[in-house]
Every structure is written in structure tokens, then in C-alpha cells.
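User: Please run a holo structure prediction.
Assistant: Happy to. Please share the sequence and the ligand.
User: Here you go; the ligand is 3-isopropylmalic acid.
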Amino acid sequence: MKKKIAITKGDGVGPEVVDEGIKILKLITNYTDFEFNLVEAPAGGNVYKQYGDNLPQKSFEIIKSADALLFGAVGLPDLPPGVAESAILKIRQGLDLFVNLRPIKLYEPLKNRCPLKEEFIGEGIDITFIRENTEGLYSNYGSKLENNKAESVMLYTRKGCERIIKYAFEYATKVKHQKITSVDKANLLKPSQLWRKIFHEIGEGYPTLAKEDIYIDAFCQWLIRAPYKFQTVVTGNMFGDIISDEGAFLIGSLGMASSGNIHPGKISMYEPIHGSAPDIAGKNIANPIGTILSIKLMMQESFNLMEIANEIEIAIDQALYEGRTIDIQETNIKTMSTQDMGDLIANKLKESLKK
Ligand code: IPM
Ligand code: MN
């Protein structure tokens, strides 16, 4: 199977972590029947400085012609907020990537890196956040910035709610979750009232799945109080942005968390959820695991390569007993650079792919 992967390295630590992701893609090409051809599609702040455009037409054409996109991070401290970052939104909107799949899983070797006491961790943390990725406060609809007034409209459409909620129910069913949680603010916001209604309409088609509604504020509390209670969590764009960062730190570091911006059956984009982290850029210390786990997601969601996805996860879990980047460092475990951590994981994966 031959596939074309567009690569956007981006700004800050983006190029460093993406290089480790590329190692994994090359390894899969060398040791399996799957062949990934990589083509760079530059975007972000550095590109903006050079061409006055954070997503040049040429890059977007490359992305549109690819089977999947691996994306690093964008954002530079000397540019006004949003100038680099809006490249992400152009891709999400432009490719109609309505699903933002954000799994958070506390791996066994990182248990003591979780900021929660053991009694709150309970049976462990393994949650899939499914965030609506094109609407809500991110839709641009009605948004304006004036001198003394600014507006962003929280737009939820029936079509937008239906497709993401349906996706979440199907996802929960596929991975055999027993419960699905919907997060909203239906005690105040009209868009949430529509969302909640649709959640229950669609839920009727899934009688064996337990359903619950939680308000966003209460959810933020429950996420640190009893994270083991949650399995599939579906929510709107803004709420999903916030709870996925909260969740990411529960698994030890923002650097561990991965995401897929997905339109099922079409080109999708995979990126670590951390940003460009300019303060540590160029130091070879960023955690590459968020990116490598994003490749795991790419394998499972875009190419249905479940076995390879599983092997990537096992390689990461094993590597964490032997080496760590500084964000999750541990006495008795070797502190490693971005590149060495990438090599360690790649070597473990190579052994299993050889078999
Ligand atoms: C994310 C990021 C983006 C978002 C920013 C950079 C626009 O925080 O992917 O979560 O808010 O969606
Ligand atoms: Mn975010």
C-alpha cells in the first residue's frame, strides 16, 4: 500500500518533534508492506514572515493531494497572537475536519507523574475526548473586532452537532466503551440546549450505551476528582479545547498528548496537542511522544493499520521505563534528548516490526 503523507513541521519545537515522527514513518516503510512517501508542506509563523501567508496556496495544494497530514506546531512569540495559529484553523475548516480526536491515557510507567493522588487516579485514566472541530466559537460566523466591542458567535448547527455526536456514539461502540459523556452548558447557552437535545435523539439508537450529560464547569472538577469515571467524552469546540489541555497534564505532560483532526474517509491531519513552545525550541529537549502517538492515531484512523498502531503504543510504553525527556524525567531513568528518545522508541518498534 502506497500513501502520500504531507509534512508540516511548523515553528518552535515543531520541526524537532516532527523529525522524530518521520523516523517512525520511515521505519514502517522499511519494515512493512506499507510505503509512505513524504512531501513537505510548509506553514505557520516562519512561513508567514517569509511570504506574508501562513498557509501558502502551494502548501495547501500539497496537503489536499495527500492521504494524511502530519503537523508539528505553529506560533512565534514575535508575531501577534493568531497570525501563525490561524493556519491550523484554515486546514480544519478548509478540509472540513469536523472531528478532533484526543485520547488521553496514563501509561503504567508514568503513573507517578500524574499530578493526582492515587485515590483520585483510581482504576486509571483512559479517556477519549471527541471535540467538534469546525463550529462553535471557532466558526468565524459573526465574529468582529471593533474598538469598544468584540464579538464571537457560538454557532452550533443541527448538521454540525449530528455528525460529531453520531461519530462519538459509533466510536464508543467500536472500542467497546460502556459509557458516553456529553459536556455542555445547557443551563445557560442556547447552542448547548440544541446539542443536548440532539445527543439524546441520537442516543436512542444506542440503547446499551450508558449516557450522561455534564455541565462544562462541573466536568472540569470531575476530571480531576474521578477521571476513571470517563470513557468517551463528546463536546463542542471551545469546551473540547479546554478540557483536552486539562486532560493532557493528567497523563504526565502536555508533551504526551496526541490528536487527530479527522474527516472520516478523507484526508485527515494529525498533530501533538502541545504548541510550538518557543522557550525550549532548538534545544533538543522537547518530548516527541505526542507526535509519535499522533502517528499511531494516523495508522489506526486513516489507514486502518491497527496492528502497527498497537506496536507503536507498546514501543512507547516500554521505552518510558528506559528513557525520558526532561518534562517527565525521573531519578533512576535516563534523561534523554528529543532525538535519543525518538531513537529509543524507533528501535523498539523496529524489533517488533521485524518479527
Ligand atoms: C489546539 C490549539 C488550537 C485550538 C489553537 C492553536 C488555535 O490550542 O489545537 O487545541 O484552539 O484549537
Ligand atoms: Mn488547545
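The mean pLDDT is 97.
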